[in-house]
Amino acid sequence: MAPDRADVRRLAQIRLDRPVVLSLYLNLDPTEFATPPARATAVRSLLDEADRRVRDLKELPHYDRMELRANLKRASEVLEGELPTEGAHALAIFSAESADLFETLKLPRPLPNRVAIRRAPLIAPLARLARRERWCVALVNRRDARIFRGSPDGLYEIERIHDLVFGQHDQGGWSQARFQRGIEKEKDDHLKHTAEALMKHFKRRPFERLIVGGPREVAADFESKLHGYLSERLAGRIDVDVEHSSSDEVLEAVQPLFDELEDEREAEAFERIGEAGRAAIGLEEVLRALNERRVETLVADEQLSVPGTCCPACGGPAGESSCPVDETQLEALEDLTEEAVELTIQQSAEILAVRRRRDELAERAGGVAALLRF
Prior knowledge:
CATH 3.30.1330.30; alpha+beta; globular; 5-stranded mixed β-sheet; 374 residues; Nucleotidyltransferase, domain 5; 41% helix; single chain; Translation, Eukaryotic Peptide Chain Release Factor Subunit 1, Chain A; 3 domains
């Protein structure tokens, strides 16, 4: 599944005084690394690169290099052991002993092998995977229900519900009518049970869009029993086999709704970009707005990469030789957009990774813009 925004934001809050956080990304694209020997080669290449990067940091104090060695050893034990590859097209590992950090995340899309040694976890690739829309799909019929969570990158089942609802009986007369009323009550109780379970999931981990699937009359009845918080998040219905559809089949059924919403979000963002005073246009203006904490949504080409500089003290990206906030000497970065993404997450702002209108964004804003809070 795509990384949850809360997980990405939690990692983004980690920023140490010294560059001892080791971040590793392992590509598990099944078209390239489907066999154990191929995966072993990718792992060895990644670990060799990490080892070289640690050895090259000769200016670091001895205890920092020892911590990095310990971080790498722990990551190696995971990567050279039983890899948690089921359902994953990439893995991310973050390790920092001094911050009591060690985390492994399975990712739904391939990412290049990557090593980073910094003061903070490298979370920009995660943020680009995480979608603003956290989706829930509820499938219901008269006696069964299934609840899925996820994003356009993948759905996973979190609960299955089965309630006893007896079938019709054909004796006729008064007993038939009474029995039928009993069946309807059992069905209603099942739908209420499912709606209550869905609300519990929402309270624990809110989602922003809800899709309902199942027989038309049952789905309509179920929607009428939803709490208002859930009703206002309804985003459509799908026609799918409630009991037997796989997660991939459910994802295929809801994909048109995902695409429709993504089109709407991009169109709304581009409309605001065109309104004077409501957006920062181009990298220089976006960096200024980020340093001033004015960004509501970062709108960026998901493939944009621009070299630049970053302040090691405050973590803010900049385009000058010294930090505009505290005049600290800046560090060179291979990709300034990664720091921009991470600062966006730290400010609890949104990220819109543009996929469909990349050419238009490049023409209008050089590939990056920001919708402003003020």
